[in-house]
Amino acid sequence: MEPAEIQGDLTEVLLSEADIHQRIAELCREIERDYEGRELLVVGVLKGAVMVMADLSRELRRHVQMDWMAVSSYGAGTQSSGVVRILKDLDTDLTDRDVLIVEDIIDSGLTLSWLRENLESRGAASVEICALLRKPEAAKVDVDVKYVGFEIPNHFVVGYGLDYAERYRNLRAVGILAPHVYS
Ligand code: 5GP
Ligand code: MG
Ligand code: MG
Hints:
This is Hypoxanthine phosphoribosyltransferase. By secondary structure, the chain is of the alpha/beta class.
């Protein structure tokens, strides 16, 4: 349950904390199978993926290495432009590494398709993507995402790492932001 102050800002809770944890556990069983016998580097995309990274990495019953990147898609408000800038790069050399990018949400897919190409160009052995949420209606580019938590409708959502104006990241659930908050 979210604090009353915050609850009023959501029109609907789409995914509860329990929904999210159960789905992450399922994804982890797949990841464990797929990467058996190989070292794995998980790359979290700041800041939205912080919660997914924390829960996913702790649910994995195996060794992983963790690194972080921060990127910004140029463009204000709630729209992605596809022009991506690296704000914080990885510390890890990706040569011959098996890399799993962990993201909060795929909207247009522009950020992730750029990011995958960028990491592949550094000589990684493989680059796959795990995203907690995907908005199918919004896809402008076809990104091959190996692990998807939930397909959600085309609304602006917040919580569990996802922000609006840097707020709401600390919600345990994912919900639809009420229009009165941004209009
Ligand atoms: P894309 O490049 O796929 O359009 O989206 C890139 C970024 O936009 C996501 O990583 C996320 O930070 C932000 N984004 C897209 N849709 C939403 C949404 O519904 N809610 C929030 N809070 N951020 C979103
Ligand atoms: Mg993100
Ligand atoms: Mg944001």
